[in-house]
Write a structure and sequence with these properties.
It holds the Pfam family His_kinase. The protein has two domains: 5-162, no CATH class; 171-341, Heat Shock Protein 90. The protein has 347 residues and is an alpha+beta fold. It has nine helices and seven strands. It has a five-stranded mixed beta sheet, with helices on one face. A two-stranded antiparallel sheet has the order 1-3. A hairpin with a 2-residue loop joins strand 6 (328-332) and strand 7.
Length: 347
């Protein structure tokens, strides 16, 4: 993970020099030779300690990568912590022993004593354990923050989904348009306004009564569609009509509640409708393919509402829980086809 501290470029470049100086000071203190501190930035040994720190840190970093690769299934296990710590300690002993012996033999031209070797290995051995401690603390903190971010993301998506569902259930745009029409009707024709209120109440009664219901019948959905068409026909001068080619046996066919009303209203909102271009919606069943098909002649507006895509996505997501077949929209031969999978209830 590039976000971890040990993989940070600045950490890899700047930490070893400071740590090498600390190691050198510690060795001076162990050897009771504090008087050499004044020569720290000119002494050859301090640069050797810095070089050993670079070598150790990069070796331990490589060891962590190899451990992550071989123990991927145990990334959060105690066994990985133990294996990585022990392998890091062994590697530090091997690398430091080899490097410091080579330094004494080839640079200083005499062999390192056992005491000196033990001091270097002890200090850098503890350093390897501290390095792994730093890694695991940073790793688990990163994992914890990542889990929190994932939980926040899930909560945000859930809230967004619930708000979207609430908006679709309430359908504020239909309510706003209906109230505007109703205000006009009240001043024009009280009896017609009363009839309009009845249809509006039936639309919202259906929405509220089926919000917690998994499936509704096709007959109920068509009735809800007819009520919506009745309401919107006041805006489009009665130029919207619905033609169904369904047999009585299809009346109780299960449908996800709100599917047809939502799709029909979406088509109406995105289509140019006037006395020269009335909208005829046709609903039929393709038995062979297993689809309920809603079709209309294409005459789309230049700017289509974003709600149209949202409604289609919601329907598609809802049907993914009940059927392996997707909800399909096809535009061909100057016609728009929306194909909804036929659901089968298995008892």
């Amino acid at each position: 993970m590039k976000t971890l501290l040990i993989n940070n470029t600045l950490f890899r470049i700047l930490t070893p020099p400071f740590y090498g100086i600390l190691v050198y000071l510690l060795i001076l203190l162990i050897n009771n030779n504090v008087s050499q501190v004044s020569e720290i930035f000119t002494g050859q040994e301090v640069y050797a300690c810095i070089g050993l720190s670079y070598l150790l840190f990069e070796t331990l970093r490589l060891n962590i990568k190899l451990t992550d690769s071989f123990l991927a299934s145990q990334s959060d296990g105690i066994s990985k912590i133990i294996i990585q710590s022990i392998s890091g300690l062994l590697l530090s002993l091997i690398v430091i022993s080899t490097a410091i012996s080579a330094y004494f033999n080839y640079v200083l031209s005499f062999s390192i004593t056992d005491t000196q070797l033990i001091i270097f290995n002890s200090i850098y051995g503890v350093s390897s354990l501290l390095y792994n401690l730093l890694y695991f603390s940073n790793y688990y903190l990163y994992k914890q923050n990542l889990n929190r971010l994932e939980n926040e993301k899930i909560l945000t998506e859930t809230l967004k989904s619930e708000l979207g569902q609430f908006k679709n259930e309430v359908n504020p745009r239909l309510l706003y348009d209906s109230l505007e029409t109703l205000i006009t009707l009240i001043h024009k024709n009280a009896e017609e306004a009363e009839d309009y209120i009845d249809h509006l109440s039936m639309v919202y009664r259906y929405i509220l009564s089926h919000r917690k219901v998994e499936l509704a019948s096709l007959q109920q959905e068509i009735k809800a569609v007819n009520n919506i068409i009745y309401l919107l026909n006041y805006l489009y001068d009665n130029k919207i009509s619905l033609k169904t080619s369904l047999s009585p046996e299809h009346a109780e066919m299960p449908v996800v509640p709100g599917t047809l009303p939502g799709l029909v209203e979406s088509v109406i909102r995105s289509t140019i409708i006037n006395k020269y271009n009335p909208l005829l919606l046709e609903l039929n069943i393709e038995e062979q393919d297993g689809y309920l098909v809603l079709q209309n002649k294409l005459n789309e507006k230049l700017i289509v509402d974003a709600d149209k895509k949202d409604i289609f996505d919601n329907v598609q997501q809802s049907y993914s829980y009940y059927s392996e077949k997707p909800v399909v929209q096809v535009k061909a031969y100057n016609f728009n086809y929306i194909k909804i999978p036929i659901l089968e209830v298995v008892s």
